[in-house]
Each structure stands twice: as C-alpha cells, then as structure tokens.
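Two folds, back to back.
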Amino acid sequence: MTTKTNILDCAHEVLRRGDSLTMDSVASEADLTKAGVVHHFGSKEVLMLAVLDHLLDRWEGELNARAGDGAGPRERLRAYVEYTLLSDMDTSDLALLADPKLFDTLSNRWSERMDGWFGKMQDPRLVTARLVADGAWIDRCLDLLHVEEADRIATVELVNSLISEGDEA
C-alpha cells in the first residue's frame, strides 16, 4: 500500500531527476494512477505544499540534530550555514521553485517555516550569514561553483565568526 510519505518521496525523486512535477509524473514514479495521487492530494497545489513541507521537515530534522536541543537563534543559524555548505543537496531541495504558478504560495510557506526557525534577524552580520547560507543552498543544489570541501569548510568558519560577532538575534 502506497502512503502519502511514499508519494512525497517519489515526488522528490521526480524533482531530483530534473523532471517537471505533475500529478502524472508523480503517479508514474509511485506506480499509481493519477487518480491514486489525487486521492491523497486533491490538487497540484496541495501536492506541491505537501512536497515542500516534506522537504522542510527533513531539513528541520537535520538542523535540529546539528543545533542540539534548546538551541538559540545563533546556534540555529550556525546549523543552517553548516547544512547548506557541507551537506549533499540536489535539485529536489529547490522544491519551492518547482512550479512558477505556485511560487507565491510556496515561497510564503517557505518563509513562514524558516522564520519560525530563525526568528527575525536585524544585525547585519547575522543577515549576511543567512544570505550566505541561502546562496550556498542554491549553489549546492545546482552545483554552480564547484567549490572544494576545504574551501566550503573555510567559508563555514568565516561565516560562523560573523555570527559570533553579531548581536543577540
């Protein structure tokens, strides 16, 4: 029996291959009919939001593991910097960009979930660290710069020094 989680994993596989995420492509990947996917996710928008939440749940689990229990905003930001610069990522991590028609809906969900993780940052050093991590996320997914691991580690150290200098978030 195919579960929602199985279907969402199949949707990520479709994205990982660089294919368009459609009800049909997910159904094919999950060995279901389109009606089977629609049964679990009533519309493409519902499916896309669930795919994004599935990705963010995975990210949040990884970030929590890196930051530790009771982590504050700085530790969470450090965990995000390390995750985006040092973890394996691929195009499926760009799920919020998968459907231009749903971009506003997906980006609002992304912001809501990420703002809950980081809170509001005003110190320019912390904002810079977040922007570096966001850029690293895009770069790691698309493999644009081909940065060696030693250089990524050095970047983490540099960004962490900015976080240490920043005001309390």
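---
second:
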Amino acid sequence: MKRNTYISAAASVVLIVGGPVAAATAASADTARTVTSAAAAVPTAETAEEASAAALKHYPGLVESLDKDGSVWHVDVISKDGKGHAELEVAADGTVTEENVDTDEDAAEHKDLIAAKVTAEQAMEAAVAAHPGQVWSVGWEDDEDGGAHYWEVEVRSSDGKTWDAHVDHATGKVTQSGSDSDNTDDNDGGN
C-alpha cells in the first residue's frame, strides 16, 4: 500500500512539473502549425498565371496585357464593361500596386477584347501547350491590316529560347509561332 502511495505521489509530481512543459510544447506545436499554414496560404506571383490571378483579384475584369520586368509583372486590366482600365504592378510576393486607374474609358475601344471567346489566361495555356516553357508576356493585338485580333504570347523555354505564339481569340488555336532564338533582352532580371 505504501508502495502504491509513493508511485501515485511520484506520478503526481511528474504531472504537476511536466504538465506546464507539455502544455507549452503542445502550444508551440499548434503555433508552428498555424504559422506554417498562414505562410502556405500567402499567394505568390512568380509566374504569369499567378500574376494574372493576383491582378484580377485586385481589379476584376479582363487582362489586356501582361509582361515581366525583373521581378515585377506589369498587368493592364480592362473592366468587363470596358469603361475601366487599371495599370497594375504585381510583385513576386503577390503584392499589387495600382500605377494608374481610369474609370471613363471609351467602352467601344475595348469591345473586341470583351467579346473574345479566349481570355489571356486561356491564350497562355494554349501557347505553353504548343511550346513548353514559362510565359513571359501576353498581349491583345491586331494584325497589321487592322483586321483580326489575336493574343501574342511570349514563352521562354528551359533552354533559353524565346517563342512568340499568336493565339486565335475565338478558338484558342496557336495559329502562328516562331522562335526569337536565344533570350537576349534585359527584362528577365536574371530569372
């Protein structure tokens, strides 16, 4: 009986002394999980697709153009009614800065972009499917004759080659593409 009392007393001491330590350890583990989860939830904008998503979350509409300059993405977004235009900068950490916002645009000027069946994001996807790599820029263009519109997408492959793809605005088909050979411009910021 005395033995049981000693064991119970010793166990109580361990629990009393170890309890706060165990609770602190458990709390630290919970805090670490919270911090890790929060860090994982922070969006980044290291790719064109991520920069586009960050820009559209900040200023809803349609991407008209997007290009990388060092570690910053320049993104032009047109509102869905065509009356708004935002020039945004998206940092690699996903931070969006408004460089210029105009709310009295001529909607007729953007009617073809608004009517396009293929978005900038879909054009990027089609271009990368045709030429694997990373999108460096996308822009809404028209041919030299002032006729049909298309998306021009610049894709950089892992071997350093740059591909320019024209993506049809109605079908998403890559209608023309060509290599600009090795990447020699300075806009890559060492990336």
